[in-house]
Write a structure and sequence with these properties.
Mean pLDDT: 94
Low-confidence stretches: none
Shape: globular
Strand order of the largest sheet: 11-12-13-14-16-15
Strand content: 25-35%
Distance between the termini: 50 Å
Radius of gyration: 23 Å
Length: 348
Amino acid sequence: MSERRFFLDQGAAQARAVVTLGGLPERLLLARDDEGDDAGPQLGERYRARVRRFEPSLATAFLDLGEGREAVLAARPGEAGARNGQALTVEIKSEARAGKAAVARFLEAAEGAPERLAPAPSIAEQIAALARGQAVEEGPAARAAADEAEAAVLQPVHGLPGGGSIAVEPTRALTAIDVDLGERKAGEGKRAARQANLAALAEGARLLRLKGLGGLVVFDLAGRGHDGPALSAGARAAFAADQPGVAIGPISKFGTLEIVLPRSIRPLAERLGDALGRPTAETLAHRLLRRMEAEAALFGGRLEASAATAVAQAAQRHAPALAARIGARFAIQGEAGWPLERLEVRLA
């Protein structure tokens, strides 16, 4: 099995942690000061909740978590959560995503008004739990790993070892992964397709973990006449790290393979990018702050940073956090008409 490494990058107003597999990013954990409670219920948080409405036809309880936060809980008649007004202690097992509420799991009966009882583990605690005693690296290597992971999250098309590519495209209902043979077409047809499909399963599993995607995933496999047993074994190996909760279907007559994965975090593209997959002003503001930190480590003078107005305004909100790290020796200027991704940092 390829080696996993673990990284923690603590920056101004943001913490990121990365797991790499074989040198490539496999997981990205992210916490930003600017999100705060607006991010919604977080994975691992515990709440005293109250059942706002129980819908027996849906086997679902709709929960009030307090302060405007909501979640849903799977419940059947007679189970915990099946009575309107009931108080419960729950833990968030799946964060909210576009158009979908957070999902909770029942812990125990409770009394009292809805409120948050325990916060989610910090990013440092989460990466330590994943590392299980292995070293967690910090410093420049961690920052580089986190930057690479962020870029990969927003990238839709990814190369495959040995040639070809996969496109990972989430929709409201499912995530589609298209396998393209690319330069492998020059080889023997069936063998090239089999190798590409096995590589796509391994890379697809890694990228789904990295991007925080779960639910129904459909691989549109390359070629025809697939080796079902070999591909099923490849899928089980590729998604072993996501167990328990993975279900792998047979290859259909149309050459597709369906896999269901457990959901946990909000898809990272929703946090880092806009509807078109471009970095948001907030994401670029954090990128600007990191660039300013890097320049401050090299030079002792005053720094001047320039960016598009929206990016500069977002960065200015984090000026106190940046000043705590490098001192109050910088200015951030907004430039009307600049493209969002143009960032400049210079010595004054």
